């Protein structure tokens, strides 16, 4: 996984894998612009979470859940695809980082419940593997 860490006005893009961290690149942080005192502070508007699909109730197999809220950038499998543990199933963008959602087990993808471009919430079922 890749992370961006800001220390002393520098962004460090760090890739962490199996207990090892490598710095990919560093960039200077632009000085923060302080808003004018008369500017209204707007709170982020929470996105309504989509209702889970009706098919979720009939899940048989290993559900693949979203580990965090985000946007599905890519779906790398189709229903009926055979996958092995560790194969990338989805690319999920969260906090401006791309995260790979991998298969936890060997099996066959029987359902895809999240489409490319859809927003997902934490714990939402993305696919089912049998």
Task: Provide a descriptive summary of the structure in words.
0% of the residues lie in helices and 47% in strands. The protein is built from no helices and eleven strands. It has a four-stranded antiparallel beta sheet with strand order 4-11-9-6, with no helix packed on it. Strands 8-7-5-10 form a four-stranded antiparallel beta sheet, with no helix packed on it. It starts with a strand and ends with a strand. The model is unreliable at 51-57 (pLDDT under 50).
Topology:
Elements: E1 2-7, E2 10-17, E3 20-28, E4 62-65, E5 70-75, E6 82-83, E7 88-94, E8 97-102, E9 107-112, E10 119-120, E11 125-129
Antiparallel strand pairs: 1-2, 2-3, 4-11, 5-7, 5-10, 6-9, 7-8, 9-11
Please summarize what this structure is.
It contains no helices and 11 strands. By secondary structure, the protein is mainly β. It has a domain at 62-129: RNA polymerase II/Efflux pump adaptor protein, barrel-sandwich hybrid domain (OB fold (Dihydrolipoamide Acetyltransferase, E2P)), CATH 2.40.50.
């Amino acid at each position: 996984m890749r992370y961006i860490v800001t220390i002393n006005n520098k962004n460090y893009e760090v890739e962490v894998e199996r207990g090892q961290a490598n710095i990919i690149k560093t960039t200077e942080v632009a000085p923060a612009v302080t808003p004018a005192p008369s500017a209204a502070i707007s709170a982020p508007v929470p996105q309504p979470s989509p209702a889970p699909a009706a098919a979720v109730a009939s899940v048989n197999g290993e559900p693949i859940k979203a580990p965090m809220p985000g946007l599905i950038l890519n779906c790398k499998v189709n229903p009926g695809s055979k996958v092995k543990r560790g194969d990338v199933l989805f690319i999920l963008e969260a906090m401006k980082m791309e995260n790979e959602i991998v298969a936890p087990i060997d099996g066959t993808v029987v359902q895809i419940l999240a489409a490319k471009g859809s927003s997902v919430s934490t714990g939402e079922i993305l696919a089912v593997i049998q």
